[in-house]
Amino acid sequence: MRRAIVALLLVVVTVSGFAQSAVSTGIYKYTSPTGYKRNDARVPKGRLGFFAPPKNAYSCNVMISTAQAGSFTAEKIGTDTVAYLKQQDKATSKIVGVSTKLGGKPGYSVKSRRKLPNGMIIDQEQVIGVYKGTAIILTFSAPVDSFAKENAKFRSSLSSWKWLN
């Protein structure tokens, strides 16, 4: 199960996109950053994707993944992810993990830099939350030169996160 969760955290989506969108599932409500539009056809099945209009060959994006967490906490998933990335993922560097909150509940944030197969370098922030046995992983990705500005929008959008029931 731990490998499945870590695998979800490693997915990087390269797509194009559009404006702000909201989503409500049985577990959470979330509104994407301003300028990001939902387009699930561009992400792996079972995931949700929100994309900004491309400024170059890469669209800044937020992808939401879910997995069964069992007894794992967000911090345990996050620290295991950091350890895995540092030991196993040669395409990833500048890996930092810290405790955070998601919807008022304990969460974990992992920031990293990744070299994509096409040679492009992107920065990512993954915010992990666990609620009622389900792990939620929000992965924000952007080119290095626009990461700070776009990540501020992503971090601001997290204030919209509400756990349901």
Describe the structure.
The chain starts with a helix and ends with a strand. The longest helix has 15 residues, at 74-88. It is of the alpha+beta class. It contains three helices and ten strands. A hairpin with a 2-residue loop joins strand 8 (121-131) and strand 9. The protein has a seven-stranded antiparallel β-sheet with strand order 3-4-5-9-8-7-6, sandwiched between helices. It has a three-stranded antiparallel β-sheet with strand order 1-2-10, with no helix packed on it. The chain is globular, with a radius of gyration of 15 Å.
Topology of this protein?
Blueprint: H1 2-10, E1 22-24, E2 28-31, E3 37-38, E4 48-51, E5 61-68, H2 74-88, E6 92-102, E7 105-115, E8 121-131, E9 134-143, H3 147-157, E10 162-163
Antiparallel strand pairs: 1-2, 2-10, 3-4, 4-5, 5-9, 6-7, 7-8, 8-9
Helix pairs in contact: 1-2
Q: Quick gist of this model?
A:
This protein has 165 residues and is α+β, with helices and mostly antiparallel strands. The chain is built from 3 helices and 10 strands; from the N terminus they run H-E-E-E-E-E-H-E-E-E-E-H-E. The protein is 21% helix and 40% strand.
